[in-house]
Amino acid sequence: MKKLLPLVLVSACSGSADAPQVNQSPTDSAVLEQHAQQMMQLRPIRASRFGLTMSEVGAPFASLIGDYGPDGMALWRKTVAGMQNELSTLGNSDVDQLTLDVLGDAYRRYSGATDIPHGFINHLGRHRAYVINQIRHPLRWVTDSMTDYVAINSQTDARHYLRRLQALEPLSQQVRDKFVQDYEAGWMPPLVLREKALLWLQGYIAPVPLEHPLVTSLEERLAKANVEVEVAGPMVTEAARILQQTVYPAFQGVIDAVQGTMQQASAGDGLWALPEGDAFYRHAIYSEAGSRMDPADIHALGLREVERIIAEMDALLRSEGLIEGSVGERMNQLARRPDQLYPDSEEGRAQLLDDLNLLVAEINEQLPTQFGVLPEQTVEIRAFPVLVQDSAPGGTYSRPALDGSRPGIFHINLRNMEERARFSLNMLTYHETSPGHHLQIAIATNQGSQPLLRRTLSISEFSEGWALYSEQLAAEMGVYDEDPFGDLGRLQAELWRSIRLVLDTGLHHQRWSREKAIEYGMRMSGRPEISVTAEVERYMAWPGQALAYKLGMLEILDMRKEARTALGDEFDPRSFHDLITTGGSMELPRLRQRVQAWIAAGG
Question: Structure pTM?
Answer without folding.
Answer: 0.90
